[in-house]
Specification:
17 helices, single chain, mainly alpha, globular
């Protein structure tokens, strides 16, 4: 029920998000085209969603609803594996849900599929295959998801050499089929243009702080069930923090750092167990919730583009 409610809130938003108008050209571009031609376009997964919605006559709201359903499926599948699933969902709300899923539709889709893949890694059989499959599907919505593929090789606990070989082969193939043609454009649009994202430093810092805590107290986290893949997420988060200081484009670093957001749910989801050591978890949980309440408040009041989310409008109600 909560998943359905969240899907509707994300998917049936009306004129919400700084990029609201930027997604209409995708819809107009595929109207009337044959399906085969749509699947040959860049970002074929997202183009397919637009084509389906255009054929059904549901417009941008149909696209957003389908995107919201996939994102929510990934988020809830991921949070079910945490010791406190609802705490994980609460942690996701201020930025991952409100800003990413409601603002960056394509990257929100890619992140939803990435979280579904991370949930697959908990399985004993075909875990790596499941992760790789989800990431590749995510890359059909936003090409940058391909950057997550090498993590599958790093996360392998058995047959590491064989896994590294086939994951490397898949990563190279995915790069040539999905990313190669866009690399020059991405570099030109982000690095050469020196795009800057307001608040990028704060957002990247929100990943590097829990990353530092995980690495500092790794033995405690490992003792309560955190797997080694999250050490790699932590290392990558800290590297991105360092790159941000020298990169000509904070936007490029900011967009890559979005894929590290699940680290926050893991670190703070296990935090009560790590610092509580068998004591009641209510106190640490309240501290985590208070922290993210402050994050939400600061963003709503001080973020330069939060006005694009205010007031939130629900499409069915706007019809009334």
């Amino acid at each position: 029920m909560a998943g359905v409610a969240l899907t509707l809130v994300i998917g049936w938003r009306h004129e919400v998000g700084a990029d609201w108008l930027n997604y209409f050209p995708y819809l107009y571009e595929v109207e009337g085209l044959p399906l085969l031609e749509v699947l040959q376009m860049p970002d074929p997964g997202f183009q397919l969603m637009n084509w389906i919605s255009a054929e059904l006559g549901t417009g941008i709201y149909g696209v957003n609803l389908m995107a919201a359903a996939l994102f929510t499926l990934g988020l809830f599948s991921f949070c079910v594996g945490l010791p406190r699933p609802w705490l994980g969902v609460a942690i996701a709300v201020p930025y991952l849900v409100i800003v990413v899923a409601m603002g960056y539709t394509r990257q929100g889709l890619a992140l939803g599929m990435a979280m579904l893949g991370l949930a697959a890694l908990r399985r004993k059989s075909f875990a790596t295959f499941g992760f790789v499959s989800c990431v590749i599907i995510g890359a059909t919505f936003h090409k940058t998801a391909v950057l997550l593929l090498p993590i599958a090789a790093l996360a392998a606990s058995q047959r590491r050499l064989a896994t590294a070989i086939w994951v490397t082969a898949v990563s190279v193939a995915a790069y040539f089929f999905l990313l190669e043609d866009a690399v020059e454009a991405l570099y030109s649009n982000y690095v050469d243009a020196q795009y800057q994202s307001d608040g990028a430093m704060v957002r990247v810092l929100m990943n590097s702080l829990p990353a530092s805590a995980l690495l500092l107290w790794w033995k405690r986290f490992a003792a309560v069930g955190v797997t080694s893949i999250w050490r790699w997420f932590a290392v990558i988060s800290i590297i991105l923090q360092a790159i941000l200081f020298v990169s000509p484009s904070s936007t490029a670093v900011d967009r890559v750092a979005l894929y590290m957001l699940p680290l926050q749910m893991v670190v703070f989801g296990y935090w009560p167990d790590v610092i509580g050591r068998g004591k009641p978890a209510r106190g640490p949980m309240m501290l985590v919730l208070a922290y993210y309440a402050i994050v939400q408040f600061v963003w709503l009041v001080f973020a330069n583009y939060s006005f694009a989310w205010l007031p939130y409008q629900f499409y069915p109600l706007t019809l009334l």
